[in-house]
Amino acid sequence: MASYSDYKTPEKDYLVLPQNESCYEYLHNCYSKISRDIGDDYTAFVTPIADQLAETGMKKFLSDIERLSAFFAHEGLKKGDVVAVFIPTCGHAVTIFYAHNKIGVIANFVHPLLPPDALQGIMEHTKSKMLFILDVMCAPFAEVMEKYPTVVCSLSDYCSGTALQYALYNEKQNAHVPALPTVIRFKDALNNDYPIPETLTNIGKDDAVYMHGGGTTGKSKTIILSSFAFNNISYDYFLIDETHNYEEDYAICTLPCFHAFGLGGAMIYTVCNAYRPVLITKFDPVQVNEIIRKIKVTEILGVPKMYQSLAAQPNFENEGLKNIAYAFAGGDLVSLEFVEKFNETLKKHGATGRLGRGYGLTEMCAGCTSNSARFYKESTCGYPLPGVDVEIWDDDCNKLPQGTVGEVVTSGPIMMNRYLPDEDVTETGIYTDENGKNWIRTGDMGYLDEDGHLVFSGRKKRIIIIAGYNIYPATIEEKVSRLDYIKEVCAVQGYDDKTGKPLVKLCVSLTDPDADKEKVIEDLKVFCKKKIEGYACPRKFRILDLLPRTKMEKIDFLKLCDKVPV
Predict the structure, then answer these.
(1) Rounded to an integer, what distance in angstroms lies between the CA atom of residue 32 and that of residue 138?
(2) Is position 549 within any domain?
(3) Closest listed residue to residue 450, CA positions, set 387, 505, 503, 403
(4) What's this model's pTM, rounded to 2 decimal places?
(5) Which CATH number do you get for residue 512?
(6) Is residue 489 classed as helix, strand or coil in its secondary structure?
(7) What is the pLDDT of residue 433?
(8) DSSP 293-350
(9) First and final C-alpha spacing in the chain
(10) Domain assignment present for 88
(11) What average pLDDT does range 537-549 have in this prediction?
């Protein structure tokens, strides 16, 4: 286990080791300490609109939480009820979460790009009693909105001045909200004189959040997380952060709130630690680079594709890069070559921070290991977070020695409560060992190096077996991604078109879409023969303009695999 003493003791005690308090209580405990030092109306979060930044202070934020909780109570919502949050990252999402949390209502975060029938299915499966949706998304969902009490949010709710004018113009052009008796506007829901409900206490380990992911077996599951888990991941990030200036610093949060890393790391932690998060509703790399130039952004939280998009823009290299102290990348693989190039650029501009790869999964609040200022190894996914156990097991649940590839398993206070059961999901998803300790068997392969850093080898389900050999796609991808002409790469299971024999199929996109594709394939064949073991060497190659992606913006390797020959 990574000990809390492995990390530097913070100078301030703004965040402390969680007990059994709710996220709502934890936020108020943090606020009571921070406000003594920097005032009671510091910025809670920032809403970017065009080239404007609208800041919302803590007084309004906390007041909105109370008023919204009063609205929930008036609508009959109580502890254990479920409300669907079908919106992208914005101030509403974090306000809604804390208002739910105050009275024990479960926040059901749903990907806002799902089609209406999928949203309806999730609402039914989770027994959600209310829906939150963004105004510009309403039009296709009228039938769903008609079935449930629906609160419609507008970005203008958290804007003022010029930003408000921009937001109102955009809403006038693009927001088509159906006139239904079930619909109420977010501002109207807040504008009430209902009595403020009592704050529930000692509910930290109760169900607080539903999130929807692939599960450790690849099948979609609803993952149940607690306040205790989110409070602990916030405390872990607090221990990692060694240079935070509470008077000046901002964080850029490009991650979606329906992602555990987005909700826990990019929203709950940054709000608790007064990091003034800039909440990116719709990712625009040019806009984000401009924000980095204009204000003192010291922390960025994103997925690899977002960092790649930032670096590809002409305005990426600007004077604001010198402020970057932390840049966390999670949610998907990122090549070592890209990390090295990104860090070279940060160093050139005088930044003390580096882009650090991490490893996590929704079942563990998306945080298990991370590269940080104290524990940094560019070629790894980092060192275990405080209080988190990471081990490598064989198929019989035996612990393997350092340097040996096996299944990554993890345990700690950031663990989920369980999966929501349905006709296909009948187990909790938690493995209990002979000593009574609970673990998540991740389905990922990797090993721990001599210093305890995790090296990721690939998904267990993605392993390609040829002639009895286990082939880990991530190993091949890491090597191929170093080629200058390769933009993205994915190694998958393929089959010989004539014989049907299994082989490694290499799918790539190119930095130059006009390149001679035949020549590229010949160059790839030569490179692979030199750099990759014979049994693992790709035999089939495919060049695409873009690699397909899942709704979570990960490369959809299943779409690239060949069908099994009949």
Answers:
(1) 38
(2) yes
(3) 403
(4) 0.86
(5) 3.30.300.30
(6) strand
(7) 94
(8) HHS-EEEEEE-HHHHHHHHTSTTSS-GGGGG--EEEE-SS---HHHHHHHHHHHHHTT
(9) 47
(10) no
(11) 95
Residues 232, 18: contact at Cβ < 8 Å?
A: yes
**Whole-number pLDDT of residue 330:** 81
- Indicate whether 150 belongs to any domain: no
Q: What tokens were used for 220?
A: 């979609």
Phi/psi zone of residue 385: left (φ > 0), alpha (ψ -120 to 50 degrees), beta? beta
Q: Percent of the chain, pLDDT > 70?
A: 98
What is the distance between the alpha carbons of residues 60 and 187, in angstroms, rounded to a whole number? 13
pLDDT, average across residues 167-173: 91
Q: Which of 419, 418, 23 is nearest to 203 (CA)?
A: 23
CA distance 298 to 292: 9
Most confident of the following: 66-70, 241-245, 547-551: 66-70
Residue 496, domain extent:
466-560
CB-facing half-sphere around the CA of 129: CA atoms within 13 A: 13
Angle at 272 between CA 371 and CA 243, to 5 degrees: 45
Which runs of consecutive H residues, i.e. helices, occur in 376-532? Answer: 473-480, 517-531
DSSP codes joined into one string, 432-460: E-TTS-EEEEEEEEEEE-TTS-EEEEEEG
Angle of helix 91-103 versus helix 58-74 axis, rounded to 10: 50
Neighbours of 519 (CB within 10 A): 10
Round the average pLDDT of the chain to a whole number and report it: 92
CB 485 within 8 A of CB 455: no
Number of folded domains in the chain?
A: 1
Over residues 472-486, the pLDDT tens digits come to 898 899 899 999 999
Helix locations, 350-422, DSSP H: none
Nearest to 319 by CA among 294, 352, 342: 294
Strands 277-279 and 250-253: parallel
CA distance 152 to 196: 22
| Burial class for 423, CB neighbours closer than 10 Å (0-12, 13-18, 19+) | exposed
Render 541-557 in DSSP notation, one character per residue: EEE-SS--B-TTSSB-H
Nearest to 27 by CA among 73, 58, 71: 58
**Least confident stretch, 226-230, 242-246, 386-390:** 242-246
Query: Residue 71 class from Cβ within 10 Å (0-12 exposed, 13-18 middle, 19+ buried)?
Result: buried
The b-or-e profile of 127-158 (16+ CB within 10 A means b, else e) is ebbbbbbbbbbbeebbebbeebbbbbbbbbbb
Q: What is the CA radius of gyration of the chain?
A: 24
- Report how far residue 260's alpha carbon sits from residue 266's, in angstroms, rounded to the nearest whole number: 9
Considering the domain boundaries, does residue 486 fall inside one? yes
- The kind and range of the H/E element at 25 are helix 23-38
User: For the residues 514-536, what does the mean pLDDT come to?
Assistant: 92
